Amino acid sequence: MRRLARTYGTPRKEWFVVGLLGNLVAQFASLAPPVVLGAAIDGVLRGGTFSLPLVPAGWIPTGTDGQFLFAVGVIGGAFVLTALATWVYGVAANEFAHGVMHDVRVDCFEKMQALDMAFFDDKQTGEVMSILSSDTENLEMFLDNALTNSVRLGAMVLGIAGILLYLNPVLAAVTLIIVPGMLVFTVWFMRVAEPRYARRRASVGNLNTRLENAISGVELTKTTASEPYETGRVRDASYRLFEDTMSMLRLAYFYRPGMELLAGVAFVATFGVGGYWLVYGPPLGVGRELEIGTFVTFVFLTQRFVTPLAEVSNIVDQYENAKASSERVFGLMDIPARVRSSEDAVDLTDPEGRVVYDDVSFAYDGIPGRADGAEGRGEETVVRDVSTRAEPGETVGVVGPTGAGKSTLLKLLLRLYDVDEGAITLDGHDVRDVSIESLRDAVGYVGQDTFLFDGTIAENIEYGRFGASDEAVREAARAAEAHEFITQLPDGYETRVGERGVKLSGGQRQRIAIARVVLQDPAVLVLDEATSAVDTKTEYLIQKSLDALSEDRTAFVIAHRLSTVKDADGIVVLDDGEIVERGTHEELLDQDGLYAGLWAVQAGDAERLSGEFGSQIAQD
Ligand code: ADP
């Protein structure tokens, strides 16, 4: 919390101070009317002396008419001042609280975005979303409400007590004797309420995760007709929240009337003792004369005691919420990003595209900075001792069974993850020594799942090359065989794709992704099953464009269909993280190993693999 105040509060402290002052002025101004009313009753209506706390006697007119007008004026002025100060406070306090929230949110997002892929592999979307939305909101609630309410609480209690003690210390003692009782009651309430508030917070989180999960998985729910099951799970989570909320509220609604009752006791005591005093003179002979006006002021102010005190429960709740939230927010901000540009990183200029993998090994491990601090090196190595190279302009096919580590191998080139051992160099520079920006500028990537942002087709092609000319976008789309289908869409390049691009087929999305890379014009191309989502005809078209695209640049092509990489300059066959074979298509067929086997299967020669037929055919 201190960090929140220091980092984000300090730049906006003016707003905070103005808000605080506005609040104090509003509170104190609102105390003026009952005090002036009491003084006016004594001074004007009953012909006594008209005196006010903190106001020099010289300011108060002497004549009855003058005093009456003065009292009316001061009371009216106090209301106007209260309104004005409340307005100032409202604007300033919200400017402060929402401004801080905005800064925290953007900072948090920026920091989060810089985190390693490994972080995102590990986290649920809902978890990260809730840090960015509800946690920052909790901070805002605290900064706005809790902070100002606690100031008001302090000001009211001290202000009222001060005035009462000034007017009549003995009667004030009668009124205030109940305050310690209220404090004890409040402390008891906070103790008992705390675990209930915590339980309720957990239930809210639980329900949100459930809902988020259910909505993301709605397709699975529908296709398996599991709606009742899903509703049941949401009902359970919702009911738990209901129960926890009720358990909290039952206590809160015991506390509030309890406080009011205690205030009532103070009121009755003040009224009883004060009334007796008015009629029979000072009780037990203690104290001076009590004027009826003072008595009226007492009665009014005693009632004003309760509301701010009853706020204590809310303040405590908001404070606890904010504390938990700020721990989560700063926890996220403090996770170190391991994959980042080094201090003395150089920019790759005009890369040629010579890529060398030198004895590279890699294992996925836990997210950095995770609670147990484990670095998980013991986990299964996904890429093991891989050495291979691609000269500028060469195409290297990467094949092998699912899970062999093909995607991982190429993600290491882009530094989505960093190698554990060995090194990858681009034009002789270790990829860890060049700036990430220039590295990713030099390497174009088309993955298996093509993500499109909500926006127009043109915007999606432009992504990463913002501000490209319309002509360049069209040119790229043509090269990616996408121009034709785009122009057939209702709004052509201005057609909006829905969230996640669901309104386009897999093949169409793929071609947009390829157009994006064409526009990027990188020295090195990484195609990870880029044609996996398309039919044979489209594949042929895309293949043609990819061939043209990779003609004069280095390309790594992961392919399930071996025909895609048949003409590559070299092919590496990966199995269980290791290169088991390498060579050209013909050489690999001659080697008669894993590649030849896969080729045979895909060529429809399935028998070749199965039993005795194999050797027979081989002999032919
Ligand atoms: P391929 O592309 O050859 O199918 P991958 O590189 O995708 O293989 O995966 C290789 C292995 O690494 C698999 O066992 C897979 O389960 C594991 N793996 C892939 N991605 C991750 C990840 N983000 N976190 C942990 N393990 C992963």
TrEMBL record:
Its main location: membrane. Pfam families: ABC_membrane (PF00664), ABC_tran (PF00005). The chain crosses the membrane at residues 68-92, 150-167, 173-193, 258-279. It is found in: Membrane. It is a multi-pass membrane protein. Coiled coil: none annotated. One of its GO terms (cellular component) is membrane. It comes from the Archaea. The keyword Nucleotide-binding applies. One of its GO terms (molecular function) is ATP binding. PANTHER family: ATP-BINDING CASSETTE SUB-FAMILY B, ATP-BINDING CASSETTE SUB-FAMILY B MEMBER 6. This is ABC transporter ATP-binding protein/permease.
